[in-house]
TrEMBL record:
Key word Transferase present: yes
One cellular-component annotation, GO: cytoplasm
Provenance organism: Granulicella aggregans
Protein's gene: coaE
Gene Ontology molecular function, alphabetical: ATP binding; dephospho-CoA kinase activity
InterPro entries named in the record: Depp_CoAkinase (IPR001977), P-loop_NTPase (IPR027417)
Entry function: Catalyzes the phosphorylation of the 3'-hydroxyl group of dephosphocoenzyme A to form coenzyme A.
Pfam family, one: CoaE
PANTHER family xrefs: BIFUNCTIONAL COENZYME A SYNTHASE-RELATED, DEPHOSPHO-COA KINASE-RELATED
Catalytic reaction(s) noted: 3'-dephospho-CoA + ATP = ADP + CoA + H(+)
Entries under SUPFAM superfamilies matching the protein: P-loop containing nucleoside triphosphate hydrolases (SSF52540)
Residues annotated for ATP binding in this entry: G11, S12, G13, K14, S15, T16
Keywords: ATP-binding, Coenzyme A biosynthesis, Cytoplasm, Kinase, Nucleotide-binding, Transferase
Name this polypeptide is given: Dephospho-CoA kinase
Length: 222
């Protein structure tokens, strides 16, 4: 078994790298997807968010208005308040899902895709050291990361200048709240660059995969 953390800043291409590892046989757990599920009505995390931020963050159908919640948390200086609700539950769910996978396949490689492996203050001091056997960082130039964020948000729409500028400012703000890649790289086992064609990232993933297979095999040997 091998527990791998896959991290990187906004627009670095974590999800793309995760999909490439999945094609090779890795089990992928997305921290964002887990958190999204935990924030659905009926979940304890959902109830805690509403209790903390108020019913004004709900849509007419009773689900969370995620853009409104994000604006309230980030622009209103309440990010840590939200994180204190979401992060511990997300980390706990990751552990449960990992254990279930390893129970079925002791040689499995589970890759947790998360932007905030180092940034989160939850899971104990240096909790990531206990949660992961290997860490992979995906990097890309900041201007490219910002362009990817804007393009992803626009989803094919032609943005007016004001909205484009607002998204660019939002990207800068989010990047500023994350630990710089240079600092993360010193804590990671592997660093992959995603600044060119998809085939370049794919080649790097293909080169790394055999090393992860060996590490997974060795971790299950007596």
């Amino acid at each position: 078994m091998l527990r791998v953390g896959l991290t990187g800043g906004l627009g670095s291409g974590k999800s793309t790298a995760a999909s490439l590892f999945a094609a090779l046989g890795a089990h992928i757990l997305s921290a964002d997807e887990i958190a999204r599920l935990l924030m659905q009505p009926g979940e304890a995390v959902f109830d805690a968010i509403v209790a903390s931020f108020g019913p004004g963050i709900l849509l007419s159908d009773g689900t969370l208005n995620r853009p409104a919640l994000a604006k309230l948390a980030f622009s209103g200086g309440r990010v840590e308040e939200l994180n204190s609700i979401v992060h511990p539950a997300t980390i706990d769910r990751q552990t449960v899902l990992c254990d279930a996978i390893f129970a079925r396949d002791p040689h499995a490689i589970v890759i947790v895709e998360s932007a905030l492996i180092f940034e989160t203050k939850f899971g104990g001091e240096d909790g990531w050291r206990r949660r992961f056997d290997k860490l992979i960082l995906i990097t890309a130039p900041e201007e490219l990361r910002i362009a990817r964020f804007i393009a992803r948000t626009a989803a094919g729409r032609q943005l007016p200048d004001t909205e484009h500028a607002a998204l660019e400012a939002e990207a800068h703000r989010r990047i500023a709240q994350q630990i710089p890649d240079e600092q993360k790289a010193s804590l990671c086992d592997y660093v992959l660059t995603n600044k060119g064609a998809l085939t370049e990232l794919e080649w790097q993933v293909d080169q790394l995969w055999p090393l992860l297979l060996v590490a997974a095999q060795n971790s299950t040997n007596p």
